[in-house]
Amino acid sequence: MTGLKNNNLTDKEIVNKIITEGKTELFGLLFKRYFPKVNDKCYSFFKDKQKSEEFANDILTKAFEKLESFKGMSSFSSWLYSITYNTVIDYLRKKKQLHYPNWNQENELPEIIDESSTEISEISYENLMVVFEKIHAEEKALLMMKYQDSLSIREIAVSLSTSEDAVKMRLKRARTRVVYLYFKMFGNE
């Protein structure tokens, strides 16, 4: 009966009980709730089942270790996803030595792109996934946070430790790059 009662707790209630009452065993509930989602996010970057599972385990372990830094200013899932995205991006930066400002300069967009007629949501999923493999991991993460996870500009800014204006500018650039690459690769399908 106690297990069932604990299943009804919200994420914040579980975190509070872990921090204030030392009930660390309750983290298993958060692990069960979020492992599949974190694993899916990792898989969207790595396309490797084993690596994704390893990263998801590592990320959830890191979240447990940092649990006291969760202040409840955003949802637990937003906080966890920020750890997920930052961990994955840091890994990809080191592995591929992708420093975003340098990459962005080397992959400059043309001055004039008419993106007004196409919205990302109008692009077929299959083609969008092909285009996503061509953009920088940071742009992909931004777009996923905004459109897949439905995070607000403020939540994204907090997650990435940057300003809301920077997030808006980078999101616009990422959307523009997706539209540009879509038309370059698929024309007016």
Provide structural commentary.
There is one protein chain. The chain is mostly helical. It has two domains: 1-97, Orthogonal Bundle (Rna Polymerase Sigma Factor, Chain: A); 100-189, Winged helix-like DNA-binding domain superfamily/Winged helix DNA-binding domain (Arc Repressor Mutant, subunit A, Orthogonal Bundle). Helices cover 70% and strands 0% of the residues. The protein has ten helices and no strands. It is elongated. The mean pLDDT is 81.
Silhouette: elongated
Order of helices and strands: HHHHHHHHHH
Overall mean pLDDT stands at 81
Number of helices: 10
Oligomeric state: single chain
Structural class designation: mainly alpha
Low-pLDDT parts are none
Break the fold down into its secondary structure elements and pairings.
Blueprint: H1 2-7, H2 11-21, H3 27-46, H4 49-65, H5 76-96, H6 100-106, H7 125-132, H8 137-148, H9 153-159, H10 164-186
Helix pairs in contact: 3-4, 3-5, 4-5, 5-8, 5-9, 7-10, 8-10, 9-10
